[in-house]
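Discrete fold record:
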Amino acid sequence: MKRLLYILGLSGLFACGNKNTTAMAQMTPEHLQNRKSIHQFKVEDLNGNTFDFASLKGKKIIVVNTASKCGLTPQYEALEKLYKKYGESKNLVIVGFPANDFLWQEPGTNEEIATFCQRNYGVTFPMMAKISVKGKDQHPIYKFLTQKALNGFMDSEVSWNFQKYLINEQGQIDKVISPKTAPDDAEVIQWIEK
């Protein structure tokens, strides 16, 4: 049974994981004006403190759902390198949301996740408390990220761990990047540097 779930999970990853969804070229000026901001949200971080997205106004944000027991977990290293390289120079913030929605690949507590991230990857970018990024328990911030009715931009679905939402300085979604696309892929770098 575990093997079947693993195979089904991998097939889902490969079926969904190769899509880089970019919808900016299709947006008309009136669509751009109707886009909503992530700055309205306050969430809990791994230490139980309130993290206010309003504090990130004027910064580019990469929101990524993470897991510590996934084949893509080494992306933590590339995310940390991006954060160190562009955090100051390009006002980039990476915000991680641990989630256990894909084949139970994030079973740890918030404390265990914090220890894992620090010990294995030296993560210094903000990490939030574990949430659900899909399904009936989907966190409100991921409802916003995945529903056009709430974000004014596009519908999307979180297809696997390490899907990346690229958020502009106004708090609006610019792009949704596939989990399999590396954090330091040219498309992400171009977005950061523009």
